[in-house]
Amino acid sequence: MSTSLSKIEKRTAYTLLLPAVFLVFAIILFPIFANVWISFKEVGLKDIRIPEPRAKKIVKNIQDSNFELKIIYKLRNSSLIQDIREVRFSDKLPKNIEPVNLDKRCKFKSQKIKCFFGNWEAGYRENFEIFVKDVNNNAINNNDIKSYNPDLNGKSNNILLTTDFTLKNFKKVFMNNNFFELLMTTFYFTFFGTLGAILLGIFAAQLVNQKFYGRTFMRSILLFPYVGPVVALAYTWTLLLDPNSGTINSLLVNYGVIEKPINLLGQKYLIINILGFELKLRLALTTVIFFEIWRYFPLAFLFILARLQAIPKDLYEAADVDGAGPFRKFFYITLPQITAILSILFMIRFIWNFNKFEDIFLLTGGASGTLTLPISVYQQGFAISNIGMGSAVSIVIVLLLIIFMIIYFKLIGKKANEI
Amino acid sequence: MKFKSLIITLFASSIFLTIIICIWKILATLQGLSFTNLNFNLNLLLSLGLVITCVFIGKKFNHNLKIFILSLSFTILYTFLNEDSPMWFSAGIFLLILFFTNKLKKYDLKYLNQDFISEKIVFEFLSLFAIVFFALVILFPFYIMFVTSFKTQTALLINPIDLSIDFSKNIFEIFKSYFVIFKTYDFGRYILTSSYVSVGTVLITLLFAIPAAYAVARLNFFGKTFLSTSILIIYMFPAIVLVIPLYTVFSQLGLRNSVEGLLIVYTATTLPVAIYMLQGYFKSIPKEIEEAGLIDGQNWFGIIIKIIIPLSLPAIASVSLYVFMIAWNEFLFSLMFLDNPKTFTLSRAINHLTGDAETPRQYLMAGSVVVTLPILLIFIYFEKYLVSGLTAGSVKG
Which residue of B has its CA nearest to A394? Predict the structure, then answer.
């Protein structure tokens, strides 16, 4: 009895899960594995289209003849790079109409013209002509002939399904002189973006955890940067920071803080002199990191605030009795209570910032020293149209992610469930 | 007498006052006033004087009368010493000082004599400063976005920091950018597409996620723990590593440039977190209620429809709003999959606008307002639900 019940339970569970699991498999897991496959191939964006044989049908009258017509088929291979093998063609003729002097490659049988064209190389074109006449020498209506569409098919290789593999993509990725810089930029962006967002999140959470007039309003607006659409916010910031007539630059020039506008998003380095030392600041990267912090500190804020509100009040009351000030309360009570959540937050946000694409793409497009790994995927795959290279960079991202996740689960995986 | 706390109060408060006056001045500049000097040092001295008088007078007078007279005299002094300004600017200064002196109410010499007081004072002004800082840093871009959309190209070129709205023009002139983006750039269609995609994603996600979450929460089956951990792991993989394979496959299947393609991808990417959030909530529903349902002869379908869904409406609302927000704001996939303007979503359409360097910035900002406003209104209205969705989903973002 019990076994059959558990069997029913199992079957129900699998039925309920199947649609979701299938979809996630198809759209998330399959592409991750497909990336591995593509990354070992030399594929460009233009190779993705499967080549097709195509025909355009034109019907022409012949001078001095009402019962004879010329049909022209403009044949071509849709692909400029791949061949099509064994192209077959068929078209239908209306009743009582027959071809005259039919091409050797074709046969006429029960009002159907069937042709075998053999192999078409890449970019193949041909004007294929057929003359037709009415058996009873009646006038032919052009539209009757036009009403049939020719049918073509052929065999071609889908370049994605062939088994030629190459290591070229990975060689190019790793042997590239800029690979180290790419990696370092990604780490700078990720590390400082995460750290800044968490620090700002602590401040904001500490602030909202106090009582003051307008606290609920403050809590709402603190989430605005994350809730707003990235496209709108990124373009607003681009306009704000624009060197020609951007609001912030104009204001700074107006108040004499700077003499010339600074191109905060388009200048790679800013050289600062401090006590005779020359410091080279990655300006555009710093700006992008600040945008990142601005946009994602609300998430850190939410997490930390939830934890702060769970700290028992009597801890603070005891501190009050001892005469501890707010700073001491923060360092000796609050901070120890939130370190666990901070470390989890840091790991998770680190992983997510590591993958950030939209923000940098919309602000700088990866120019002026802000090229990170995710942007590189897009550049290789779509700007340079080299899908194979793009996939190879994706694989690098996935491998690094797996390392981060192993570290995450080793360090705090179990703790995460307790909090 | 504790000089340390007195001096800390004087400096912390006067620096705070000077900074908010500077911010007010900068905001006024954006309304077309031509200030070119912040006069920081002068105003700092003025503020210091104000705080000293305020603290030394203490509670000897009626509080309201005191702050009123102080604010008025300070405002007059300020206007006298600084450059000419219109009435509304001075009125703003007056209100700022009224607010500030009111904050200083409890600060008199007696209060400053308490133990451990200086730390408290610094903390208080730091908090005040933080409120101003966060409000400014967050609202400023939204403000600029909104105001720029009402300007004209020539006005922006002549004076880029004058963002005041000219109310003497007729309504059509003021809202011109909005008329243009709806008429010329076809934003009406994009709003429809975006709404259709977002609502569709929510519905399909719920349709798939509720049964799956129920199975994970309640039923026993082989591979359950594996499944629930892998949900989170899958969730961590970013869109950017999926994009190339999906692009190639969708191109070959003809799913690019179609709303259906977007629906499939959005649903799949939001499913893991939806399942994760819902199963947590389902577990909190007492099992006895379902058992009662079982005795009444319900099958699992009936249990989900008649018991689980009505009981977990708050969680379903959270998930729906969260998924709606993700779908509405999504950019990467719409950038990759859509290149026919007929299928654009709002985000993609705005990105398309910037592709043409000639597009005036007020149109761009009007488009940004159109895409931002609905999601902000939804957020403000349903804040409670969306915040709990965000907290649960904030592993992602």
Answer: B241
